[in-house]
Amino acid sequence: MTLTVPTWLTLARIALIPVLVVVYYLDARWSNLAATLVFVAASLTDWLDGWIARRYRLFSRFGAFLDPVADKLMVSTALVITVQHHHTVWMALWASIIIGREIAVSALREWMAELGQRAKVAVALVGKIKTIVQMVALGFLLYRQPLLGVPVFQIGEWLLAVAAILTLWSGWEYLRAAWPVLRAGEAVHTAQHAPEQERNV
Q1: Nearest to residue 153, comparing CAs of 100, 90, 74, 97?
Q2: Fewer Cβ within 10 Å of end Cβ, the chain: N or C?
Q3: How far, in Å, are 112, 116, 125, 201 from residue 187 at the CA level?
Q4: What whole-number distance in Å separates Cα of residue 34 and Cα of residue 31?
Q5: pLDDT, tens digit, 9 for 90 and up, residues 145-191
């Protein structure tokens, strides 16, 4: 298996996850800035690897599998350390919604792939908007401190709430798009196993 440039960038994004955790908990005045810069760098690799893959047609099955995994790992890690540092009910709720949706949509895509209908759950516009809002929110939350009098953390909290709402919306859109195929696939599965079930009665 040959690793393409986009795949190397994706692997670099995964490698930045422990770096994010370490610098976030450093006992230093600049730890919040360092954590934010690490997260921003990881977010930029997410955009860059997609751009390079499309521009130079450097697609691979491994890269297609790894890219969303890297995104989910980075986002989940940022959410977990944020909730651990600011453990409020609302913060935990938004984080649970976002992480839960990511797990559910990943499972849905796997199921659709088994049915040969993965394209039905391709990333939609609302999903892209959710990703942008979510990344900005997490960047603000990781920075934590006011900047030039601007309440960065409070803005991040509100943006995370918006991201959670968009997460539910996009999750519903994916499920609605996939539901006819899932029902049809379940009907075929039931019909195929009906004779076997009758023999076991």
Answers
A1: 90
A2: C
A3: 15, 16, 30, 20
A4: 5
A5: 888 888 999 999 999 999 999 988 887 877 777 767 666 655 554 55
